[in-house]
């Protein structure tokens, strides 16, 4: 019994490049999956492209095992408050839409929310919002409101972050007789944005260390940054599970990135145990230790992730 969590598939970009990254994985892996969770950024323009991309995923495993959590790109050419449309697309294709969703697969509880950020990472949210509004495509490509819709502003996504954070805090406070994994698109750790730091970092990560230290979920898997990096906070593994754009991934490297979010449940002497593939960080560390598994990537050629 296993679950695969993948972020930043950007399948529209991969198909434009003539590559299918999922073809790098062994077919028998999909046969054993109880679920595939896409942790954001399946594709831009979801109203047009999500149906096709869900069908591509469904060529590997039944659509009823596919669960889609939107990332920032999944709102491009769409509405930030248009999740009813995304829910309908998933339902029409036989898949499942996730947002502030609790999902139990293989006896493991998954708490799933996009997250966004509060822009407070560097201590000056107002300045960070101004920089993000100028530098992030999110605020040019996503709209809000029916009728006289407008482009979204950082204040809009900060409000959603507060809502998603409150939901996660409440759910993590609820006991569960099993393992718990949090899945978000945005990064919850200030030191796991990646080696290439910039003034846009507050749009990629929020500091949820106090929540992680208090709640101690078994793992927190995220995407958005396209940097395969991880660390340990107490006993919590915090790991990026991004694939990224095709120009960032050498041929032959796809499987290694996609498998970073593979979770297997095993039974030892009647007791449930959970394996997250290739966890290498030191569990004794009180704070996260940066552990890149492949060389960090340079900034994206003028694009936001």
Quick structural summary:
Residues 1-228 form the Calcineurin-like phosphoesterase domain. This is Metallophosphoesterase. By secondary structure, this protein is α/β, with parallel strands linked by helices.
How would you describe what is shown here?
The structure is a single chain. The protein is 27% helix and 22% strand. It has 305 residues and is α/β, with parallel strands linked by helices. A six-stranded mixed sheet has the order 5-3-2-1-14-15. Helix 3 (46-58) runs parallel beside helix 4. The protein is globular. The protein starts with a strand and ends in a 29-residue tail after the last strand. Mean pLDDT is 89; it is low at 268-272 and 278-304.
Shape descriptor = globular
Number of helices: 9
The amount of helix comes to 25-40%
In the sheet with the most strands, the strands line up as 5-3-2-1-14-15
| Alpha-beta content class | alpha/beta
Instruction: List segments where confidence is low: pLDDT < 50 over at least 5 consecutive residues.
Output: 268-272, 278-304
Instruction: Give the C-alpha Rg.
Output: 18 Å
If you average the pLDDT, what whole number results?
89
Strand content: 15-25%
Distance between the termini: 32 Å
Order of helices and strands: EHHEHEEHEEEHHEEHEHEEEHEE
Main β-sheet: number of strands, strand sense, barrel status? Answer: 6 strands, mixed
Number of β-strand runs: 15
Helix-strand layout with pairing:
Layout: E1 2-6, H1 11-16, H2 27-32, E2 33-39, H3 46-58, E3 66-69, E4 78-79, H4 83-93, E5 96-97, E6 101-105, E7 108-113, H5 125-135, H6 138-141, E8 142-144, E9 150-151, H7 154-172, E10 180-184, H8 209-215, E11 219-222, E12 230-233, E13 236-240, H9 254-258, E14 262-268, E15 271-276
Parallel strand pairs: 1-2, 2-3, 3-5, 4-8, 7-10, 10-11, 11-13
Antiparallel strand pairs: 1-14, 6-7, 8-9, 12-13, 14-15
Helix pairs in contact: 3-4
Domain Calcineurin-like phosphoesterase: 1-228
Pfam families: Metallophos (PF00149)
Protein name: Metallophosphoesterase
């Amino acid at each position: 019994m296993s679950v695969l969590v993948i972020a930043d598939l950007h399948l529209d970009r991969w198909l434009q490049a003539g590559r299918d990254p999922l073809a790098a994985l062994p077919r028998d892996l999909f046969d054993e999956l109880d679920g595939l969770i896409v942790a954001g950024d399946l594709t831009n323009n979801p109203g047009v492209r999500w149906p096709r991309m869900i069908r591509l995923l469904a060529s590997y495993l039944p659509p009823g095992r596919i669960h889609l959590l939107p990332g920032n790109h999944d709102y491009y050419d769409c509405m930030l408050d248009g999740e009813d449309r995304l829910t309908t697309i998933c339902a029409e294709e036989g898949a499942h839409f996730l947002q502030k969703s609790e999902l139990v697969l293989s006896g493991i509880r998954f708490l799933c929310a996009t997250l966004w950020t509060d822009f407070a990472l560097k201590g000056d949210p107002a300045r960070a919002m101004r920089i993000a509004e100028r530098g992030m495509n999110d605020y040019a490509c996503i709209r809000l409101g029916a009728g006289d819709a407008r482009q979204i502003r950082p204040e809009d996504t900060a409000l959603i972050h507060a809502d998603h954070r409150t939901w996660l805090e409440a759910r993590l406070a609820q006991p569960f007789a099993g393992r718990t994994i949090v899945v978000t698109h945005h990064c919850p750790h200030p030191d796991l944005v990646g080696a290439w730091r910039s003034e846009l970092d507050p749009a990629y990560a929020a500091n949820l260390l106090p929540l992680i230290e208090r709640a101690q979920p078994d793992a927190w898997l995220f995407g958005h940054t396209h940097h395969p990096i991880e660390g340990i906070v107490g006993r919590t593994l915090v790991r990026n599970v991004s694939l990224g754009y095709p120009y960032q991934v050498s041929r032959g490297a796809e499987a290694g990135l996609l498998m970073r979010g593979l979770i297997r449940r095993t039974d030892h002497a009647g007791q449930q145990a959970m394996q997250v593939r290739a966890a290498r960080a030191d569990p004794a560390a009180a704070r996260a230790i940066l552990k890149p598994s492949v060389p960090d990537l340079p900034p994206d050629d003028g694009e936001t992730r």
